[in-house]
């Protein structure tokens, strides 16, 4: 009896270890992609929950700083598509107005662990802010306004962009060491950190570049490495 129990416990432990390894491998793959303006990190408490923020650099949402979470299925990567939920208010045809969930059905109808990766979802995040036509919009009102009443659409987009900026320094809604936070620019603190990043970038040949937020604004900018 004990042997059966121990065998089951060992199998469960192996499954958890294998999943954690797979998740960390997915996270490391992000470093090989040029995901400009997107920052994500797994929760300190739960590797199935990732915190993220995206800085929009162009288009009608330019200037927006939108927070989101990426939730992996319990049996990831073998069960279901990860869920992206915007925690910042976002008026967008592909984002459910009530839940904040991004509709991924058009691009990820199912998840294939051999073909699909988390970095692909993050790449798609870039796309949705420039391509606003969707076959199956999650927000019918926003989709209709974009197609038929552009003035109203742009006004609501501007409203959510300003709202995202107003809340950029909010206290974390959760007690997690890895929650991404921002503080007002302090030259004594941040100038030193920026200079250290510049020095570090010269020795990291495998990196695409480094990013920080420009003093006096919420616009992130990057220095590409060569």
Mean pLDDT: 85
Gyration radius (Cα, Å) is: 20 Å
| Share in helix | 25-40%
Give the neighbour order of strands across the main sheet: 1-2-3-4
List the helices and strands and how they pair.
Layout: H1 2-29, E1 38-42, E2 49-55, E3 65-71, E4 83-86, H2 118-128, H3 140-148, H4 150-166, H5 187-201, E5 209-213, E6 220-224
Outline the structure in words.
There is one protein chain. The chain has 226 residues and is an alpha+beta fold. It has 5 helices and 6 strands, in the order αββββααααββ.
Quick tags:
single chain; 226 residues; alpha+beta; 4-stranded antiparallel sheet; two-stranded antiparallel ribbon; 5 helices; 15% strand; globular; disordered N terminus
Task: Report a brief summary of the structure.
The chain is 35% helix and 15% strand. The chain is α+β, with helices and mostly antiparallel strands and 226 residues long. The strands form two sheets. A four-stranded antiparallel sheet has the order 1-2-3-4. Strands 5-6 form a two-stranded antiparallel sheet.
